[in-house]
Amino acid sequence: MAPAESGCCACTADRHEQLSAIIERERSRGGDAPDVESAVDSLLGPLYYRAIFSARPASPDWARRLVDTFLAAP
Asked: How far apart (Å, rounded) are the C-alpha atoms in residues 14 and 39?
């Protein structure tokens, strides 16, 4: 069984719920929001990688650029 299926990372469920709420809020306003899995792969992956494996801090400016790049993607 894969780690995601076994529930060993329960904290990610909260992140999925938060992203889902943000995306649904944007869609309810008529926005063209991406799906949750794309947001997880493009945003949470780099954030967690930097937090766990990198000595470089995840600054607010870096996070903003990450989001801007994600939202600009087709």
From this structure: 14
